[in-house]
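In this section we walk through a basic example: taking a raw amino acid sequence and producing a predicted 3D structure, encoded as discrete structure tokens. The instruction is simple. Fold the sequence below.
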Amino acid sequence: AADVVETLASFGLAYVLVKFFVGVLGEVRQAGLVLVHDRPSYYKILICTLVGASSVVVLLIIIAETKLGVLLIQELHGVTPSVSKLTTSAIAYLSVYPLIDAIVRVKIHAELSSVAHMSTVLVSCWHTVEVAP
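The resulting token sequence is shown next.
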């Protein structure tokens, strides 16, 4: 039962740390909603997002594979060495999450922006026709 508790604690700590560093990419949805109007602008936002997510991935891999991770997890969070080792392993496995999250956010919010733009155009045209004599 102790192994299960340690594994759960490790995963929980790793997930919270990964989500903390991914939180920086939370504003990507605003960029997807506001700045995407056509294919070239979509690709610009996607590339910018992938660069940001890649930097978070590199940071997470550094945390998972170096003494910085041990210092961050073991010393600052005050966990045992076994939990620290499991947590760094979980961070290594979760390090691809920022890329997946960023791509999904840009894709979904760019499509929402496209639908909202079409809806605005249709409503504007409807009101123009309705007002015209």
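Looking at the output, two observations stand out. The mean pLDDT is 81. Helices lie at 2-22, 28-34, 39-65, 67-77, 81-94, 97-131. In the next section we compare this with other chains.
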